[in-house]
# Entry
Amino acid sequence: MDVRAMTRGIREGREEAFDAFYSGHADRMYRYLLVSTKGDEERARDVLQDALLRVVRHLPPLDAPEDLWRYLTVIMRSALVDQARRASRHPGSTLSGAEPAAESEERAGDRMFTLLHDALAALPADDRRIVEEHYFRGSSQVEIAARIESSLKGLAMRFSRLRRRMREYILEGLRRE
Amino acid sequence: MSDPLRDRCLEALRRNALLSGVLEEGYRPSEDAVLRERIRAAMIGAARQRRRRRFLLSAVSAAALLAALAIPSRGPLPTPRIVPAPSVKAAPPEAFLVVTTTAAAPLFEVVPTPSSWGFEVVHTAQLVGPLERARDEELLAAGGVLGFAGHPGSPRKLILAAPVPRRFLE
# Structure
């Protein structure tokens, strides 16, 4: 579904437009907020909900995908600022009261990739090698499993564990900044 | 042969794939059914409110239009302006040099006309030719007025019916 039909469909309350929007953008928005909140997952989820509510209530008809993403980033920044102000009015809140700096997606992406590179470098050599083989050299999991003499299921579990470890490393890096 | 641009794009795509895979290990809004349902309900509510607002707006606009159209017909009809009928009266004496055929001056010569004509013809210093009957029908309708003569700005002569002295016809 193109952006034009999707944004108009959401304004008219059409389910298929909402499904297309939610499936295509909610994860990306969350990733953006994860960086903007410096890896604070709880806060990123709160702000995501607030931003999504604002989007479905006020989304204007748009034509181009870049216009939609620009609109979404404006909404997310605004939701972040409001959430930070709310937090500062309630000193007992566990949330940080500092207003987030406006974060461009390029900068957020750069930080993510830097941390990803560091997370990969921090893996043990064997683990790093299979990640690089699969993701950077295009080897299939079947080929890797055969090389390291492991079952496919075992390799899939190992990949999942490595991704979780890298994720923790990235979020920790964001929190430290 | 290696293409640096293609290599950079491939590298970026692979890094993206890894980053997506890494981040998908945690919370994913696309799999959060509760959040999805909450947002969907908000969208339906907002759309309903938008429709209701649009309906109200169009109803108000229609009512305003109807009221605007109805106002002139509901009000009292405008009283017709009574235009007084023009009273027919002879022009004031100073406006015209009244000439009767009985008191004609030497400057004035009456031309013989057939008896069937409704007016007389005069020759004056200002006007030569037949009198213009149609100049002022109302004035002409007044009793005894046969016509008047004269160019705009010049002394006008009102011709009244009277016996024509024979001496002017000779």
